[in-house]
Amino acid sequence: MLSPSSILSYLQEGRGPWTTIGCELIGFIATTKGIPKENSIRPDLQLMICHWNKTMGISDYSWNRYFSALNNESTVTFLPVLLRPKSRGYVRLTDKNVDSDPVINPRYLSHKEDVDLLVKGIRFVQKLIATREMQKIGARLNTNVFPGCESEEFDTYSYWECYVRHMTITSYHPIGTCKMGDEKDPSSVVNYDFEVKGTNKLFVVDGSVLPTLPSANPYASIMMLAEMASDVIKAKDAFGRARCDIMEVFITKTIC
């Protein structure tokens, strides 16, 4: 990705590593039976197939000790992703000063089952690498020991737990810091009209209002929320003005 020849190949011919969208393939797997009462199966792991580079927050120390030995080889990264993590963090005020930064503690991997599930995802990847199709192309696991896990025996649960706790990123899908709920739910921040409780016309419309993650990327869910919220806000505005513009009658769902 950082090679000058790759840059030239992209600019001149539209080819090479720079044509990647960042994640070439994703898949979803269910390692549990889902919701017993509904007899349904919900994916709990997402598998992302992508390239890995230093821009993803890897320190120089870890990169040089773990990844750099593979620089001249064709490599691919399999990332097991938690779809419904059980670890819960918090966002709190530091003090009464409005200029103070908030205290943000996501408490990643604080629930043991999250670690167990990620290790289960690694075991799934190992089975995938061992398939006939993958062996035909010479696929093999990176057996370099990750820095900080040297005291653990490679390929044991304790090693992979250490690996998971050292090598985890968020995938940029945080939710839930402004939970939606009814008036009886003390942990909720906004009501079902997206309005912050105890305020007037202060709305929050983004991933933060989702109480829990969907079993996939939250993009489509957030777009749906935005569509709903736009109707709610337009309706409140129309009632506040006690009249509707002529265009609102024909092109919106606002009740006028």
Which features characterize this protein?
GMC_OxRdtase; 2 domains; 256 residues; two-stranded antiparallel sheet; alpha+beta; single chain; Glucose-methanol-choline oxidoreductase C-terminal domain-containing protein; Glucose Oxidase, domain 3; three-stranded antiparallel β-sheet; GMC_OxRtase_C; flavin adenine dinucleotide binding; 7 helices
How would you characterize the overall build of this protein?
Belongs to the GMC oxidoreductase family. This is Glucose-methanol-choline oxidoreductase C-terminal domain-containing protein. InterPro entries: FAD/NAD-bd_sf, GMC_OxRdtase, GMC_OxRtase_C. GO terms for molecular function: flavin adenine dinucleotide binding; oxidoreductase activity, acting on CH-OH group of donors. By secondary structure, this protein is α+β, with helices and mostly antiparallel strands. It folds into 2 domains: 163 residues, 2-Layer Sandwich (Glucose Oxidase, domain 3); 83 residues, no CATH class. Helix content is 31%, strand content 10%. The strands form 2 sheets. Strands 1-2-3 form a 3-stranded antiparallel beta sheet. Strands 4-5 form a two-stranded antiparallel ribbon. The radius of gyration is 24 Å and the shape is globular. The mean pLDDT is 86.
Q: Topology, please?
A:
Blueprint: H1 4-13, E1 23-29, E2 45-50, H2 60-67, E3 77-82, E4 90-92, E5 103-105, H3 112-129, H4 132-136, H5 157-166, H6 219-241, H7 246-251
Antiparallel strand pairs: 1-2, 2-3, 4-5
Helix pairs in contact: 3-5
Euclidean distance between termini CA atoms: 55 Å
Radius of gyration: 24 Å
Count of the domains? 2
Number of strands: 5
